[in-house]
Amino acid sequence: MQTLISGFRTTLSNILNNKQTFLLSVATITIAISILGLFLLLFFNLNGLLSNWNRQVQLIVYLDDDITVSQKEILEGLISNNQHVESTTEVSRETAWAEFQSNISDNLKPLLSLEFNPLPGSYKIRFRSSDNQLPHIRELSETLETQQGVESIQYGEEWITRFEKFMVFSKIFLFAIGGLLSLGLILIISNTIRLSIYSRQDEIELMLLIGATPTFVKIPFLLEGMIQGLAGSVLALFLIGGVHYYLKSEFQSSIDSMGMDFQFIAEPFLFGLIGLSVLVGLMASYISTFQFLYLLNKK
Question: Which of 78, 235, 271, 288 has its CA 20 to 30 A from that of 96?
């Protein structure tokens, strides 16, 4: 405990003696963690939007005009026996035509003069809410489209698939950005700590000569790196919080129209960002002190 207290005092002295370098390092960490945090904020809200859309997706089965009663019974049996189906609504040709007539735009009014009903009957199938809802929709869709009496099936597969691919790419991109920023921060903090070490080189050599252990020498610099990481990450979270508040207050109506709840980063990931920043500071400090003591021992 005495060693740790002494290390904190030495760390504070190092920070005060190298204030400009310390603040520059903290500012760099703040910018880097802010970039990573903003990407994380965007990713989780897009992922939430996709989940919300997936919950609202319904499978529409369009029927042939000449579908028989037995064919309909087979279809209804397949649908009702599927444990993932929440509800099924049958829309007759007459109902579909009536809905079309009530919602038609002025440009399409000439279609109302048709002497026949061009719209097919259909089943609208809604699924139970779950995280893996889309595979269940695909599975039932593949089963139903092989049945007689089915004209076509629609549930927006193409755009959902593209959005899912985009989310996978975003996740890979997020990890890549996080890795590159962490590497850059390690180099920056390492150089900052190295400057602090060399500014006290004579003092450190004297401490080692009178019996100080390498661990005793390392502690102040390890603490300095961790403090840099902690300070930078906390400032970054305040900055990300400000951006989140601004976007939510300025674009709330647009966000609501998309059916999206624009949320802040979840607590586990907030602590993860802080932990990552502190860990990067610790690693960078350890690298600098290890290199210095290694070269010192070789002399």
Answer: 78
Q: Which residue ranges form the domains of the chain, and what is each CATH number?
A: 2-52+161-298 (no CATH), 58-155 (3.30.70.3040)
* Contact of 236 with 272, CB cutoff 8 Å: no
Residue 28: per-residue pLDDT: 83
Rounded to 10 degrees, the C-alpha dihedral 91/96/98/100 comes to: 140
Kindly provide the residue ranges of all beta strands, DSSP E only, lying in 17-92, ordered along the sequence.
58-63, 85-91
Taking CB atoms within 8 Å and a gap of at least 24, the contacts of 108-112 are none
Q: What is the DSSP letter of 111?
A: G
Q: Which two tokens stand for residue 75?
A: 């279809």
Q: Which structure tokens are listed for 76?
A: 């209804």
What are the two backbone dihedrals, phi and then psi, of residue 117, each rounded to the nearest 5 degrees? -95, 115
Length of the chain: 299
Half-sphere exposure in the Cβ direction for 54 (13 Å, CA):
21
pLDDT at 214: 73
pLDDT in tens, 212-259: 677 777 788 788 888 888 998 999 999 998 988 888 887 777 766 666
Q: Distance between terminal CA atoms of the chain? A: 32
How far apart CA 264 and CA 240 sit, in angstroms, is 9
Per the listing, tokens 């994380």 go with: 40
